[in-house]
Model the fold of this input.
Amino acid sequence: MQVRADQLQAQLERGLRPLYVVHGDEPLQAQEAGDAIRTAARLAGYAERQVFNAGGAHFDWSAVLGAAQAMSLFAERQLIEIRIPGGKPGKDGSDALQRYCQALSDDVLTLVSLPRLDGQQLKSAWFGALDAAGVSVRVEPVERKALPQWLAQRLARQGQRVQGGEAGAQTLAFFADRVEGNLLAAHQELQKLALLYPGGELGFEQVEAAVLNVARYDVFKLGEAILAGNVSRALRMLDGLRAEGEAPVLVHWTLAEDIRALRRLREAVDAGRPLPLALREARVWGLKEKLFERVLPQLADHQLAHWLQAASICDGLVKGLRHPDWPLDPWDALRRLVLMMVAPLRPVPPASRPGGVGGTRTPALALR
Done:
């Protein structure tokens, strides 16, 4: 049975299952899910705890099988934790996990911790056995769009809240900008607010004074910010990646990949291919699929050709070559490429739309 991280507590209150799997790369939510399971196990009388770290090719899986079958000398019930940091138990581990699931005991509660799994791992026999034997909890990063609400919920837990209306929304947006991509730091900043201020309403000045700029940016999210037409976020992410020491070659590669994908889709649609089919053939999934669907009708072939040419120039610049019409610094060149892409994709305010209908704003490009 699969549940979301925010559904886990309710499931635990309905009664413990013999096995829990927590998988994902969001450390705060993985830690909180594990702590919730351990607390529920302790309250239910699982007093003894054994931890196995299956981190190498020569791990002895027979020890895990033996521990689950042996009666404890000190407690009637025990919690067994199996941590597989690489996410690949191997052939021996796969067989052992399947046998383990077939011999589960009421006196043993098992917690399996895994990193983020790909599609092939999720379809594997060993993960299928774990999922069928108990509850699997998939922890996912909180997307930027959902982060203000997540922060508001966390503030409410500690008896605090922001102002109502637009002022409160601005406060949460400011908070989200400072902690984006780093939920552990967000959690620490929330705890700091709980220590600094009493319960009740928090003003913008209080949050601004307390919250540090601890955002961490994912290079692969930069393209999503560009396609969403969010100029300020795209530039902030680019500056953050530069400050974090990200390689400009990798940043350029992600932008160029999006441009090439859009050009291929534009050619496929112009040739009569239905857009949903072209997206599947191009292996564009998830949020990026929705963004591509939105922006592709707005982009003409000549515009994409211009982007492609600019990406080609930028490719040389990030590798040390020079171009007479482009900045010498690779990050300045990347900034120019980002602005070139994001400018025509910005949403147009309703009052600026011809006849009140949709469109995009195409301002003059101040990049020289």
